[in-house]
User: Fold this.
Amino acid sequence: MTLEQNVEEEEMLTPYESYENNDTSEHHHNGFGKESELIDPRLVGWEFKIVRAKRNLFYDPAVFQLLCREEAEAGWILLEKLDDRRVRFKRPIALREIIKSDFLNYDPYRCSYGASWQPGRWLSAIALLIAVVVPAYLGYNFVAQALATTATRSMESFPPLAPLPKR
Assistant:
């Protein structure tokens, strides 16, 4: 999936109301002619988030279940697994005040999952560096030795120089 397709998909998500009732008055009439109090809009509705991984981490069922358990601690409910790198969660807005992030081992609004340090990238960079430096060094030594050998052979083929006359 290309980055452009990913961004396009994210832009086409369905917008949801943050609360079910748009009436701002203190009371409203229900269908039976009685007035009832409105529920606080902060207590009604859902908030959504997408957790992303840099690699296909969610292909492994154990990792996926660990993610779901961690998110459930903060009240997040699995909505859908988009692919092996993205998972969408939802939770009631009321849980913002109920579940305190101080008691969690992670940020409840995190959007990335997995280690930020990726040894595979570092190993690839080191292997590339070795693949470039070692042949260059060996090539330099080979050429230097070849030139030194050629220079000594050519010096041996010339007759020795006669000493200059004294004045």
Notes: The longest strand covers residues 46-53.
